[in-house]
Each structure stands twice: as C-alpha cells, then as structure tokens.
Design goal:
heterodimer, A: about 110 residues, mainly beta, 4-stranded antiparallel sheet, globular, B: about 110 residues, 5-stranded mixed sheet, 9 strands
Amino acid sequence: GAVVSQHPSRVICKSGTSVKIECRSLDFQATTMFWYRQFPKQSLMLMATSNEGSKATYEQGVEKDKFLINHASLTLSTLTVTSAHPEDSSFYICSALDRDQPQHFGDGTRLSIL
Amino acid sequence: DAKTTQPTSMDCAEGRAANLPCNHSTISGNEYVYWYRQIHSQGPQYIIHGLKNNETNEMASLIITEDRKSSTLILPHATLRDTAVYYCILTSGTYKYIFGTGTRLKVLA
C-alpha cells in the first residue's frame, strides 16, 4: 500500500534553533500534503494544507512565519519550525493525498525543545 | 470544530466484536464518513470509508444509518493489537480532515 515517510522520527534541540521535518510520499505523487500537530493525550490538530507549487494554506491561529511549509515537488513537503521554544514541543504528523484515495499518514516526528 | 461525536472510551473482550459508534447529525450530502485509528506514538492508519452504503473490507465493516446521521465501525473479532484510538471523520471535496476526540478502545485479554 501507499507509504508516507517522515524524517526525523525524533529530534531534541535547544531553544531558539530551527528544525526542519520532511514528509515524503514514497510510491505515489501527492499534489496535496497536510501537516498536523498533536499534544499528549489530545487529538490531531490540522495546521496547514500544502499544495505542490503554491503557498500553503494555514488554519486559523497557526503562525505562518513560525511554521514554514515548502512543497517543492510532488513527493516532498517540509515543515520548518523557526526559532523553536519549549511550547513548540509536540508530535508533528504529515499526511499525503493521492487523488481520490484516503489520506496516508506518516509515523510522526516527536519534537522536544529544551 | 469536529462535526462528529464519539464515546470517549470503550472496552471489548478479545475475540468479540467491537462496535464503535459515531454521531454526525449535521453531515452534508457530499460528505463521506472515514474511519482511522491511531496506535500509540504512530500516525493514523486508514480503516474504511463510506458515503451512504454499508461497506466491508479485510479490516472492518462500516454501517451507516439510512438518514446518515450516525454510523458504526465494527471490528468483527477484536485482538489485543486493535487497542488504539479510533477516529470518525467527515470530509468532502476539500479533503481536509478535522479530527475529533476519538474513542479509546481497549481490547481485554
């Protein structure tokens, strides 16, 4: 079946640094990818929709200058958390859409900011 | 806000059928019902989806009421590996998923 790979799976870094997370669709072309974040014991919250070759669409309350999204190809979207602080620590998950198929999710990136 | 309502948690004995309900009383005519599950510290896994007819695949069955205001996911023979949080999601042409709180299913040995 369709596979979405997310990298890294876990990252720990100091406050103030920027962190890039990659999301790749391995066996299909994804015109649309989605980014979610999930805090402990909570549900997934949609952050933004990423379309190949165009600017991402952010959900209300999500800072676009804080969470930079780039979807440069049909198989790769990246999320950069800029100047990360402890409150940005969370589980970040991407998903990819293959035409009319269900979204396929990556296994997430656990980000810890010290 | 999510347009679905699910019980917070459920228990099911191993080998028995697990029936997970979902209310979606404000569903629109072009919205599909999707079910995913999330095992701890992993991304959500697709289970099944439907529009108005009942659906069955190798993982589960989906029963949608005639008025489409509610549905039930059925895991016919639950195993310990089915312990997860199960999400019922409505989506249409925008393909955006808005996750609700889900149901935490615990399968008991």
